[in-house]
Amino acid sequence: xxxxxxxxxxxxxxxxxxxxxxxxxxxxxxxxxxxxxxxxxxxxxxxxxxxxxxxxxxxxxxxxxxxxxxxxxxxxxxxxxxxxxxxxxxxxxxxxxxxxxxxxxxxxxxxxxxxxxxxxxxxxxxxxxxxxxxxxxxxxxxxxxxxxxxxxxxxxxxxxxxxxxxxxxxxxxxxxxxxxxxxxxxxxxxxxxxxxxxxxxxxxxxxxxxxxxxxxxxxxxxxxxxxxxxxxxxxxxxxxxxxxxxxxxxxxxxxxxxxxxxxxxxxxxxxxxxxxxxxxxxxxxxxxxxxxxxxxxxxxxxxxxxxxxxxxxxxxxxxxxxxxxxxxxxxxxx
Length: 334
Known about the structure:
- The chain crosses the membrane at residues 6-22, 34-51, 57-76, 96-116, 136-159, 171-193, 213-233.
- This protein has 334 residues and is mainly alpha-helical.
- It has two domains: 2-237, Rhopdopsin 7-helix transmembrane proteins (Up-down Bundle); 259-328, no CATH class.
- It has twelve helices and no strands.
- It has helices at 2-18, 28-41, 45-53, 60-84, 88-114, 125-129, 133-160, 167-198, 202-258, 269-277, 283-303, 313-328.
- Helix 1 (2-18) packs antiparallel against helix 2 and helix 11 crosses helix 12.
- The chain starts with a helix and ends in a 6-residue tail after the last helix.
């Protein structure tokens, strides 16, 4: 049941990240999530047995799945590093180190896996073959790499969360940091279990097994939630902005048509009028039009200040709402 829940969490994250994939300049996070989701899906017994039967040797899927996990962790840490570290030199140095560590880990995993005597396919690989030194090394190498990457990612989160201005990033990266911490504990538990397998400490393994299951579920859940919050927050912000634009744009357009449009010397009337009359525009285009209309209305008010004319309360309220919207989006109106 836990393996199914974990797979559902990961594929849900993949779906959330895929919603804005075309508009995102860097999809490393989506790539990482897809690789990790594919890896964790193989932990479902029925999936493992069926897919492994299509491969040429016993338990080949275990190696493939764990290599996918290492690749996914690499892309995940790289994406988090790029999002949190603004200094290009530090970011590049960190990326080079992580790439080299991932490659070395993959090589060691393949070598140690080749030395394991595992004649029969098994959905409980470490329980059945973990008493072999090669199997313990195969598992430990993976989790030493994950431990090192997650510790670095945790430090990155702790250093950069206080500097983040947007709440969705502060909350998201704080939860990611918590997920990294539980991942560190999980890695320690796994490495200790690897040693216990060699010494056949069955009572210890039976006692620690439930702890591993809980840590595994909590780690994946925290990381999925933390990674999902920024894109979900962005989506909700975008929907909220579109709703505000739909409410404000018609009102400010009417104000512009009764003021600026009647004074050609104040505005590039032809250009702006085309924007005012155009339908079916994107949210960004609507915001740009509103911003331009607000500025031109202000210019018109300055020119008309000596005339016997004032905006009506309704027009003034529409202008104020449009100004506040522009200011919240970081656009000066004067």
